[in-house]
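Researcher: I'd like a structural prediction for the single chain below. Treat it as a standalone chain; there are no partners to consider.
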Amino acid sequence: MFNYSIPQHYLLLAIIIPLFMFTVFQFMGKRTRTIRILFLVLFLIVTNFVVVTMYSSSVSLVHPQVVNSPISDMLFDLNYKTFKVPAYSFIESNKEMHEEFECSEVQFQDNSNVQASTLFELNKPQDLKIIRDQVKELSKKRPIYKLCLQDSKELSEQEILDTKWFKFCGSSVWLDKYNVHFMVNRIVYTTTAHRNSPTVSMLAGQIFDNDWNEITNFTFPNSNLTFPTVLPHYIDPGEREIKNVLGAEDPRIILHEFVNDQGEQDQEPLIVFNSRRTNIRWNRAMHVYRPLHDSYKITMLNIKNKKRSFREKNWAPFIDSINENKINFVYNFNPLRIIRCELDSGECDKVSGPDFNKVANSNAGALRGGTNIVKVPENLLPEKLKQRSYWFGIARSHIDSCGCLHVVYRPHAFIMSRPQGSSNFTLDYVSSLIDFNINPETWNEGEGRCSDGKSVLIPNSIAYWNIDETTRGEQIPTDYMGITFSEADKTNRIVHIKGWLAHILKTLDVEQQQLTKHYSDEDHVYYENQLLGECATYLAQEYCKVNNIDLSAQTGYLALITIFTPFAIFFVHRTLAPNARDGYKQSRYTRFITVTLYLLILFLNLNAWYFCSTKLDGLKSIRPDYNSPIGLDLAKLNFENFKVPGYSFIETGEESTDDSFKCTQVEFHDVENLSASPVMDLNKDGDLKICRDQLRELSKTKPEYKDFFLDRKDESEESILSNKWWKFCGSAVWLEKYNVHFMVNRIVYAKDAHRSWPTISVLSGQVFDRDWNELTDFKFPNSDLKFPGILPHFIDQGPEHKLEILGAEDPRVVLHEFTNSTGQLDQEPLIVFNSMRTEIGWKRAMHVYRPLKNPRDVTRLHINGLEPRAIEKNWAPFIDGEEGTINFIYNFHPLRILKCNVDSGECNKVSGPDFNKDPTKNAGKLRGGTNIVPIPSEILPKKLNSRKYWFGIGRSHSKKCGCVDELYRPHAFILSRPQNALNFTLDYVSSLLDFNMRPDTWNGGQSICHDGKSVLIPNSISYWDFENSNNAKKPKDYMGITFSTADMHNKLVHVKGWLPHIYLVLDKQEKDLKKHYADVDHTIIENKLLGECSTFLSKDYCEVTAKWQDW
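Model: Treating it as a single chain, here is the predicted structure.
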């Protein structure tokens, strides 16, 4: 939002002053130069006076100092600006629910004076350094903290702090007894430099006075903690070999008043957070933590008579009565459910709202979590409201597709209440999206708001709420509230609000009879609660539209300043610095005034840029790589080199293929070009639960999905998901038009708990932004599917409906560009997979599937002139230009290429020898692998422009690799054909690769040798893009490759340097290249030999890998 605060008024001078000067001098053109100079001096003095006045502290009334109040004189001197609060309430609107209800019926706009101050930063540059030093000390006694010190020795401490440590989610509470603000922060350390993929999260505490100055070396009575400090709470290390997402997340804080051991009334900060725990199968649970009572102990919360959910989070805390050693939570808003928990035991009961849904995720709604909830002081309520207790809080919502943004998080104010003698809570009011005049920072530093695609403003706490004592005698006294926020998961800030009390009282200011009638029908109120929760985001698109208009106004404002500045300088020059021909010699005084005016105009203009540029990030979105899959986070990753042995008749210049041929003749090694990032896990806990819940719903209308639910009644859901369900084979593609990664997964269910012999498989889809943050509730235009979600394709149950190997296997995805019904070029993910089919005698066939066009239909592929074979699989897909068709490498040695129509499924062999009658002889050592991507001709040397080139990653299956009986590993390869012919050739194939990865064992928990199987399957080249491709001979390239390890994981690795590796392979004289490709018959033989050479070094690989990975 563009707000005219003090700095912006100052910026207006950058336009007003030169314009005014220009006008005055036009009328004084015939006066003496002395008068002009005197006038300019006078004007400069006035200007400076105005500037100083505007920046000085405003004169305010003298406020009496209130002992132990969070309100300080600073609050009265701040510059507050009004913000609008659209809201919804059945009470205020005096409307009743009916069948055709619309949110606009209960909408109202409060034009009273709710105002927000400017934003204050609570983080300081040295905070993370202090915390890291404390962690180092803690690691000497507690090994868990050593996980925060996994950094390369090549990185400086400042680089580590800048890229791997984050401090946000600051939640604060005022401790009246101690006259301080206590703030808890979430501290994140991540080995991968991705703050949304933390290795360890921990809590840290800070103390502030009532002016928000941090107090150092502060201790509370009867506590050994000295603040600021890491709060040394218990962190569950888990049982997994790879340690990530450990520790406390989303801390919230609330004031807990209790009677201490001396019988005195006391106060403490009570912290709630969520964390994964080993004793509940590594699910996420809520906890309470009393750092001043026991700095190590945390208490896990458990709701009685409710099946534990995979993920418990976003509980909004409040206190309903003091001295009871209990805490209340809003569990969810629509419908409103309230729970009450014992602080000591962690046992919780539902005290208000309907029973919990059996499907855990159905308990969520549009409104979630937010701040602690504070009680509206009863002594400030009118008499007619004193029959109930009221609370005020700030929740948040998650909005998709807000203007140019994919994801927006914004706050919502709400009021809830209950009768004095009952625990039946109601939601009385909820606001629309509000931002308190804050323009949140972008998720990726340095990016424009639109190109960033994500705007995150999370309310963390109501730090204080108090009354200005000088106004207590008024009908509605002036109140001040401090709200802490995090922007983009990397800041801690506070904004001060005044006027909430007047807003609340106006909302509830209705006749006693109307109030009594409203609250009397409890069933009616229950449905109203649900509707208010849904109405919270009713004006979301209007909110998004208004913010985009404001951005355009700022753009014009800055453009005007930029254009006007040179005119203003030119005017001053003409007025005070005449040419020599005027016969006038400037005095020193005149020159001084001239230079001073130059500097003033430039200074004002620089200020305009400084204050506006942070708000004009939309301009930065107009950039060449707007829809590039390369995010800023890629450059921050720690890439480590890996060696690539390879084979190529082109690179080596070898042409001999007689009986004496050896693979060493065409072997070469690239030891410097390629490097890989750390591995990123794309599966999350809870993914399978979501899939299972969706399949249960689908099974009500599609009988084939009932085959996913063949479990005994005595089996728990957790046991079923842990032992019978898997998610792997994730294949992704970048959709440039939509600026997202689309990923398809194989979801496997095995009723007998053997994933290698599944009962049934189905496909599911996910959508990620370019930094691989998953987008939820995502929809593509003209598609009814919502992601993440099951892709509801047809599943053939077979002629006898045997409950084995049903459904889709080995999905691969490729980008399909086509002309849509409106005549525009469009993009879609085109999925290929194999599956058993009744119509060909229950044989395995390949299929194509277009989920965004028709999510139910699949098209079976069939090769003209070839009878369906028992097993068709491992076809590697690619696109060769013709719309509506897809190509495949049918097999590598010998190389055979197919072209298929995506609508009819009809395929033809376009390159390679005829098929063998014996289908087993069509296969070789190299098989399947990823989708195959084109190598852009514009970045290749001109000598290669006579051909089209593709790059892909296949895989091999080796036996007896050291102590491992079966080994699956990737192999890179290059494919090409002439521009005017379909004679494809295999130009290069690498030896076995692992990208510095350590695949998980097939049977988790066993050693690799005892396990006997090491499976690393490349599923997709999810993206391949280049930096500076217009002005660099060899642009820097990045490639994302997805893998499955042990048929139960989805992983991603980023690789840098494939392009120079390709240059190395193909870097030959043009005459040598022509000679190589001229003999077509010879290249067929070479293709076959390269395929056989791919595993030539497997023994060497096994020996090296056994030492490196400690087999």
